[in-house]
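Record type: monomer structure entry
Structure origin: computed from sequence
Chain ID: A
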Amino acid sequence: MSYDAILEIPNVVIVRGAPGVLWRDEWVSGAHYKMHDGVFRGNSSYRAMVEHEASADTDPGVGANWETAWRPIALGYLAFAPGIPSLDFSETANSQYLPLP
């Protein structure tokens, strides 16, 4: 019998799903994205749900029609507290990144 598997586990069936994410790095306006392309935008990551030409309207998380082109994979954010300097990469010693609870 022939198997298309790397690991065999008794009583476990692995079913192939949709293709994985093809990471394309940071989102770029004007780039051509295909279905399943993955991008980073800000502190979040997104997966393309349709093939499209990137524009301000499809800017992940903020564009007027972004939800027609992208689905969030992981949403991240920065929090700033009173009395703590804002994140400033030129002054990293004086800046703090605070994850929200």
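Annotation 1: The chain has one domain: 19-101.
Annotation 2: The helical segments are 66-69.
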